[in-house]
Amino acid sequence: MPFTKGDPNINRNGRPKKDQTLTDIAREYLDSKYKVPGTDKEITRKEVLVAKVFSLAMRGSESAARLIWNYIDGMPKQSMEIYNEKDAEWLEILKQQINEAKRKAEGNNSTRLHGNPQDNDS
């Protein structure tokens, strides 16, 4: 339906604002300033959180140390092989075909390099 001037159903306020997610609220909070007690210095709450986690790790908290380690280096990559007996059969067939193709290719290469092997027998 095309826009018509004076349409009473038109939304003059535009699309409604989307509610903030918990992540949005947490980001705003972490970006807000925190006054360091006993000083005139202000730092972000994000910096306070990082300092606290490092402090816990330095006092022996394994979970804090693991958290830091994972954020710095990332979790190690894990691979998983999933297949059943039918897949194993197909894999074996494919391996055999690959090996056969390699043998044929090697045979063709030696023929090209050394001439026809039947000619050397006479």
Distance between the termini: 91 Å
| Low confidence ranges | none
**Which series of helices and strands comes N to C?**
HEEHHH
Strand order of the main beta sheet, please? 1-2
Fold and architecture overview:
Strand 1 and strand 2 form a beta hairpin. It is built from 4 helices and 2 strands. 54% of the residues lie in helices and 5% in strands. The protein is mainly alpha-helical and 122 residues long. The protein has a two-stranded antiparallel ribbon. Among the domains are: 52 residues, no CATH class; 33 residues.
Q: Could you give a short description of this structure?
A:
The chain is mainly alpha-helical and about 120 residues long. The chain has four helices and two strands, in the order αββααα. The chain has helices at about 20-30, 45-60, 60-75, 85-115, and strands at about 35, 40-45.
